[in-house]
Write a structure and sequence with these properties.
single chain; alpha/beta; TIM Barrel; 14 helices; globular
Length: about 325
């Protein structure tokens, strides 16, 4: 496997094999957070991305952890390549019209590699690109054993990312993992430096309490810089509601692996029932029906030619700036 710190030289060429998704979705993302605190839900595959859009969420997320585990079957330790990430970005971005936030981990190297990464992901349809301050052999942000690169090195990478984007609306997100390594004060200091280096949004990873979220929100309230919270399950952060995060000054909440975790648990249960009963009959009420699948795909099996005839129009719609995405929150259960 190629070194995760150096992308192959044909990464941008690979992204050019198909027409690029035109720019403009970053602007939609910026507009969405100007109205309310939004939920950005991780899409483990394209059909899930379509469901996220249909249910009215403002943006979808390509999580490095979910991509590593769910698509490649490997741990989240910086093993996938830029080409693999760009291809998944292309698949997800072309399946929806809402903005896609892409977790680019450490950017695949130094400033030059980060610039190539931004160009490839932007061409593939990313509305926002997230970069973190760990070294190439990174770890999940909610696990022990993380290390940090020098603050100056991260600032150089963020500046390179900003300079490389073709659309000034594309959002560059600076994530710091310093809270779990050197403490909250160092995390806040780094975030200020990352903002000064050009990061549009800031992402303090693995905050450990409600008070810490409020502290970071207060720190950046006067700057107007959008803040991103990671509401991943089974981590060190409390699972705060969107209202609570909004009150703390955060503009967006990530749910990076939620759908994948729910789907995998459901599949585990289904396999157990299939093994025990020798039939899937008792699972039918828990399944998405064939009709529901076709509805989500906008496909009438009686008229496949109609789907094919509109393919060019769908492609054109995917390449045009989308209408402003809905920012309403899904109703509370019950």
């Amino acid at each position: 496997m190629p070194s995760p710190s150096k992308p192959r030289v044909d990464a941008t060429a690979a992204a050019a094999d198909l027409p690029p998704v035109p720019l403009g979705r970053g602007r939609l993302l910026r507009e969405a957070v100007s109205d309310s605190t939004i939920a950005v839900v991780g899409a483990p595959f394209a059909l899930a991305a379509r469901l996220i859009e249909r249910e009215g969420f403002a943006a979808a997320y390509l999580s490095g952890a979910a991509f590593s585990a769910g698509t490649l079957g490997i741990p989240d330790i910086g093993l996938f390549t830029l080409e693999q990430l760009a291809e998944q970005t292309r698949v997800l971005s072309r399946s929806v019209t809402i903005p896609l936030v892409v977790d680019a981990d450490t950017g695949f190297g130094g400033p030059e590699e980060v610039a190539a990464c931004v160009r490839a992901l932007e061409d593939a349809g990313a509305a926002a690109i997230q970069l973190e301050d760990q070294p190439a052999d990174k770890r999940c942000g909610h696990l022990a054993g993380k290390r940090l690169v020098d603050e100056a090195e991260m600032c150089e990478k963020l500046a390179a990312a900003v300079a490389a984007r073709r659309d000034p609306g594309t959002v560059i997100i600076g994530r710091s993992d310093a809270r779990g390594v050197a403490g909250l004060d160092d995390c806040v200091r780094r975030l200020h430096a990352y903002r000064d280096a050009g990061a549009d949004w800031l992402f303090p990873e693995a905050l450990a309490s409600r008070d810490e979220f409020a502290r970071v929100g207060d720190e950046f309230a006067a700057t107007g810089t959008p803040l991103l919270a990671n509401m991943t399950e089974f981590g060190v952060s409390p699972l705060l509601s969107l209202d609570d995060l909004s009150a703390s000054g955060f503009s967006a909440a990530l749910y990076p692996v939620t759908l994948l975790r729910v789907a995998m648990k459901a599949m585990e249960a289904a396999l157990g029932m299939l093994a025990d009963e020798g039939t899937q009959e008792s699972l039918l009420d828990l399944m998405q029906s064939r009709g529901e699948l076709y509805e989500l795909l906008d496909y009438d099996p009686a008229h496949p030619e109609a789907w094919l005839a509109t393919a060019s129009r769908r492609a054109a719609a995917a390449q045009a700036p989308s209408p402003r995405p809905a920012t309403h929150r899904p109703p509370e259960p019950g």
